[in-house]
User: Fold this.
Amino acid sequence: MRSDYDLHAKVGRLSDGSKRLWYVDGKPIPAGWEDKFKQIINAIKQVQAFGLSPNRSYFISILTNNDATHQDRFFIKDDEGSIYQRSPETTVPDKDKGPVWVRLTKSSDYNQYLEVLIDYRVIDDGIIWNTTEPSITLSTDVILQSQQIKDLDIVTDTLSGPLLYKHSKYLKDERWMNCWVGAIKAVGYDLVDIQHPYQIGVFTVDDPVFKNTVSVKDANGNTYTNLSAGTYDVQEGNLTRVILYGPGGKITLMVDYGAIRSVAHLPSVLINSWDSDVFLSGSEGCNSGSREALQAFRMPIIDITKSTLRTIGITQVGEAVLSCTVEFGDVNVEDIHIQVFTRKDPSHGDSIWLSTKSKALGMWKGTASETGITTLTVSGHSFTAKMDIDFRRVTETGTIINGLPEASPR
Assistant:
């Protein structure tokens, strides 16, 4: 039999173990800093990484709390000396109410950053940590898991949801963006030709000058805008049907303006820049157009609905394959699978093997271009195909695909 005490003790050990998932022990703790070390380990609940390389190591360098000079400074460094920090170093909002998320951004690249869930209530005021030694080092699992979650989000967003804002570049006003993007409930394309990506460049709500203007631009630079700053938008229940007209037809958005208006202190001009990096997806909910139009944007040749994009590497391969043309052989492109794909493999170098569901077709092996797109010929018995592949998009190395065709992109 097992007592309640035994169960309680086991749960306690599991809880203690989970707190350590985000870091690993590095160099010895500097003398006199042992108590501060315990405070930091107890305060930080979770760490997420975005755009960081798992081949680098990252460690906490500086952490202050209510310091007279540095306020709430937070530095994480990598082994190349790059710094990820809060900016500006003002007091963290709401930190006295409970754990809060803080963002540490690489000063030279807004696309590389860390988000840390930290409870400032359990650490002392002043300078908590200040060292150049990697005593508190982030676990590699933090980097790898964050990348896996991002890749899962990419696949999910490709198949559902009207926006791709999760994968947009870091914006100074991102905290505002997260308050309103969810109010765009659906998108539909009534266009002669789908030209992804569709970028939102203007989005205003109850602005004195622009009123409720929405503007979207396609990959060819064509602009689609609603008429008379939203005057002809149609209210349908709690949602508004916003129709954007342009050279190739119209784009329809279903927007919950009430949800946006309910958020206090939002500016009336939410986006007014073609550097916004907020895009519409190919998942339509307003009409019966192509539900998978986004394939032409992210995976132009891969059938994402029939492929098993279960790993980071396979997803990267799907993005890297740009075209495939059968020059000789009795087989359609739609029936071709990528059975083997290697990238900088010690034994096979760069290579690709094609097959149908039941038989091998041919292979190519060589040295891929590191400066541009590789045009190659896959050859086999009674089969030849020309392919364009951007191997630079595949950052995973080794044998990435090697198995049954059913488990490969097609």
